[in-house]
Fold:
Amino acid sequence: MEQSKEVVYIVDDDYRVRESLSALLRAYGKNVVLFASGQEFLQYEREDDCACLLLDLSLPSMNGLEVQQQVMSRAALPIIFITGRGDVPSTVQAMKGGAIDFLTKPLDEVSLLAAIKAALAKDCLLRAVQDEQAQLRSLYVTLTPREQQVLRLLVDGMLNKQAAGCLGITEYTVQVHRGKIMKKLQTKSFAAMVKLAGKLPMELMSSTEQ
Structure:
């Protein structure tokens, strides 16, 4: 992934804090986008491949915890809270809401950079998994209902003969379906087909009627 597409979003109503963090992160090669309020960030049309959010806890109008709720309801984005006067209840609520870290101002440079590195890595990994899931779904939906049934039975460990008996078809027909399934899923071996099927969302495999 190109680093130019990694973005650190900063939401803080203090201009000095925004500019200070921006200068620091840009010095380390990070792309930074600044916002003075949670509303501004929520209205922003993001264009990134990997990102995280530095979010001030004490914001006017909509506080950081409220912004977090809005962000997480739309798309999971790693959030690092920053605050000048943190309290235990807020910290607990932020972490339960999925925050990566909770840092107190003045920010320690080493801790901040470590938190950002972890947040970006988490987002990159999450997006890679989501992309893989989307690709698998697109391949799976090319299977006919009968092929989906056969796949489910084979993945559950049935032999061709057993699957045939379960579905009331011949063993040869199961073999034909198996070949078509492997072709559609773009796998070159039965083992590879089973491994790929194991990555499919459970709701897809469990919804197959037998």
